[in-house]
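ENTRY TYPE: paired fold submission
RECORD: A
CONTENT: sequence, then structure tokens
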Amino acid sequence: MTTTRSALLLAAAMIGIALLAIVDVVPERLAQFAPLALLALFPQAWLGRSRVCGRAVKAER
């Protein structure tokens, strides 16, 4: 999955949780911390795929 696609999915999940909180399906307290939890669970969506270790792998080739 590309970085753009995963970022869009993350944003859609955040918007979905907000909409569910508006109609009282999700408790308000949970909806307040859901975006932060989603960012912690899926860091590749906002950090991308770059890794510090990737430099070492490229240097060996």
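RECORD: B
CONTENT: sequence, then structure tokens
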Amino acid sequence: METVARASPHEIEALVGRSVDAFFQDEGYWHLFVALRCTDGNSLVFSTEDVGIAKYFEVFPIKVKLEPTVARAWRALDEPRTIQRVTPLFRHEWLEPSNPHPELVGGGPHHVHHAGRGPASPHAVQHVVVQAGVELQCASKSSLVVFASNTAPFNVEVAVSLVEAENALAAFTTTEA
């Protein structure tokens, strides 16, 4: 089974030791990136990349880059958090043929896209594992989870509170299999 990733192990490991004091995410429906403001004057910017797997099947793995901090509507964390460990998060994504819809005019949908911890349905016509997020485990025993949305292409989500992080992690596995 193919694994699709756009954040290299080196890029992920380079996050360790950075201290984060705020985050940014657009408030509207489209939030195409999440930025974490570091205390050293840089920001970690997470976004996704469109990867075509097959006809009607695209996935959006997470990627990260370090950029100089710019003015944004930053939302401060309760305290600065130093990243001690980074865990890549994977999810299975697959296509299944859709049920016929004779009530629709023209051609109805051909396939339905699914995403989750897996396993994929035995009816899947395409199946890949996607590195769709990261868990940033911090010194304060807290985590930040940054991940590609499974409901809107290109959107990136961030989980800051313990409850948000636990809910986000439920959709992922930490292994590629």
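NOTES ON RECORD B: The mean pLDDT is 92. The chain has two helices and twelve strands.
STATUS: closed
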